[in-house]
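Form 12-C: Joint structure prediction
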Amino acid sequence: MRGSNPTVAVSAPGKVLLAGGYLVLDRAYTGLVFGLSARINVIAQEIKTIEGVQLTEIVVDSPQFLNAQWRYGYRLAEEDGGIKVTQLRV
Amino acid sequence: MASLKHCIVPYWSVIGREVDAGALRSDLVLPLHVEVHFTSSNSPRLLQRQGNNSQQMLTPTSGSTITTNAFVETTLSYALTYIARTAHHRPNHSMHSARITILADNDYYSQPSAPTSAAAAAAAAAAAAAASSTSTSSSSSATTVPPGRFAVFPTTLKGAHKTGLGSSAALVTALTAALLSHYLPPSLFDAATDGGRRTLHNLAQAAHCAAQGKVGSGFDVAAAVYGSCTYRRFSPAVLAGLPDAGAPGFAAAVGAAVASRAWDAETAADGAGLPPGVAVRMCDVDCGSQTVGMVKTVLAWRARDADAARTLWDELQTRNERLAAVLRAGEVAALGAALAGVRELVRAMGTASGVPIEPESQTALLDALGKVEGVYGGVVPGAGGFDALALLVKDDEETARRIEAFLEWWSKETGSRVRLLGVKGEMEGVKVEKANSYDGWIQ
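Section 2 - Result
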């Protein structure tokens, strides 16, 4: 299945634990947590490659900061180890 | 959880750990610097990485830096493994390369100068150019973004000033959701459905625990997925025995953990209410004081003095529930007393355990803020400490202005730096966004 969704964007809120600090570590108690309007936004896009060029790389950018780019290679690990991710030299 | 290390890692310090490349020149080991933050170098995850990277000599050019990002890397391992398993992908064939862009709304970091100034604009252009150094697209496109939505900082991530809001959980959750949405068809993952959110929650909890090297309560991931709620934690056993990422059997274990019926976290969205006209606001307190090992010390007290701790926690739970009930019922007049009741027992827990959960400086500030018109009261949120306050306030401009003026005065008087952040409490959790709302930031 080739099915991928060209560009997707998702956001998730930060949080504040208003009540229940420490107690929330124990299932016998609960915490009262509020999401915050400050969100982390993540956009995923396909990297177009020239035909015939095989590339397995995930490039992660945090463009609000200097030098904030991480590149990862990935491959199938042996013995059902899943996808092995390795940071690449920039 | 034998495979996970117990250690305390400050939020965001893990995003953008940075190594002086010079220090690595004679060394094979890429993640050496992680030892600075972790309590020991024996983390299974690190050993495994060392083994796999041992053939990669680092020969950085003078002055360059190598940065790792444990939360991003671990989340990639978990999410891609889950995707490959779910879609029966083989990565070298059909899991195409991807570009991931992470953007943090303002308030996670302090802006050294106004974002609209010429200096900031220049920094923005420089940062955009640096960030897109591997692409062919024009870096000047960043300047087309409406000013202010995502502030650009003239620093590295490590050098940025964090506000104490920082949430690695929001990053792990949003990154997981973006990867799953990107690679899987809606029939296999849809973040807008209950089933999709359950998958996202379970996978993000697993990745977040692995990245931080401990099984936490998970309230932060739960809030990132489900939004505001009352939260009862999951039993840690559900993540027990998960192999390290990439180790034999990891893929099956991740699949089983995500699908497990043993997840018993309770997230009651209707437990967290906010009356109309009332806002949750946050203050950033920058006073230079920091306390480490607070959780460990409080739990040691609880183990040592079990009966007293149980009595105190049971009563505190009652007061916490009362606060939630007052908020749900919109009993604004009762808010101040409910908050004061919670704070009283939080301070008692601090005294009994010897941990500054609500330090004296925060007590003084909260008490003074409570006298500002429109402020119903506040707490030191989460595990407490010196760096943040949460307030319940009347949601209007005048109140915000009064708080800001008061905090300016307070900062001068006490030699601290306390600011009202722009962020407010809101109900919604994970959200699928329109990609074009990030035009200018993405290629």
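Section 3 - Comments
The beta strands of chain B are 15-20, 65-69, 98-104, 229-232, 266-268, 278-286, 375-379, 388-394, 417-426, 431-433. The longest strand of chain B covers residues 417-426.
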